[in-house]
Amino acid sequence: MGTFVQTALEVIWGEFDISTDHKAVSLMLNNQVRDSTRYGHTARTSLPGLNAWEANGEGYNDFADNALDESLFGHLATNDVLLSIAPLGATVTQPVYFGNSVQAEFSPMGDEVGEIAAFRWTAEGSDQYGMINGSVALNAQPSATGNGTAYQLGAVAAGQRVYLGLHFLVCSASITVTLESDNAEGFPSATTRVSGAAQSAVGHQFLSAAGAITDDWWRIEYTTGGGTFDIIAVVGIQ
Questions:
Q1: Which of 100, 136, 137, 228 could bridge 80 with an S-S bond, Cβ 3.0-4.6 Å?
Q2: 233 has which bridge partners?
């Protein structure tokens, strides 16, 4: 696709979809470059350091919105909370940035008299894997065992990993979600690459597996004995 006007995006933090409360969201990826200049050099030289990321959001507060308050207030200073930001929405194959986060700041209200009460937050990466650039693999409300849509994400080279992020927005019974791969769209010889833990309440999971994996087709598989669910799964390779 080409240039577009951003009118909506998806922000899923842990077990909460807080997208519609926002008016602005930003994500900055950076590298902590270090000076390597030595005697005899005639110009500054640098070496790449550690990668880091920071996300920021702001919007209009609604204190009757339990999801917003529980997510932003409840996740303050909590480590390894899965944050997914999908700039084009959470439909399958759309791009998404996701990673484990720690919420560094939260301002639940602000601005001057006469202005709409606003909130602001800041989050940073909380694990060694950093921010993953991937795609939405599942956005569904399954009521029985089944599979998500198969799509061609690509192979996993040696030294890379495939990452799976799971947001359980609604979860009334036990469900297990896995990530499968195959070398053909019809999945004639599906292989489980990442297995999530059985989930029986709202929450989130972040998992990964090391390459090399030559398969380039991927899909989500879920197993449940019944219940009510709302699941968003995100997958990336890097």
A1: 100
A2: 138, 166
